[in-house]
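Chain A, query sequence.
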Amino acid sequence: MTTPLTLDAFRADLAEQLHQDPHEVDLAENPLDAGLDSLRLHTLAERWRAAGADVTFLDLAEGTSFEAWWRLVAPHDGAEDGPARD
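Chain A, predicted structure.
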């Protein structure tokens, strides 16, 4: 069983790809404006899928902010129909 992705782990994953400290990651920022390229998007999608998130490269490419990404990959308790999509 995989450990659900936490917001802290999400920030740490982003920070690693952005070469920043996790506290420096601005969740309101556009991922492409922040400097993430397609290879890094693939890397993150694979990592988060391994953690149990139902997310694809295309989902991330269409996301307009890191906050939107978090809504896609955040663990859900099943009470909703699914994660919010941008």
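The mean pLDDT is 90. The CA atoms of residues 7 and 20 lie 16 Å apart.
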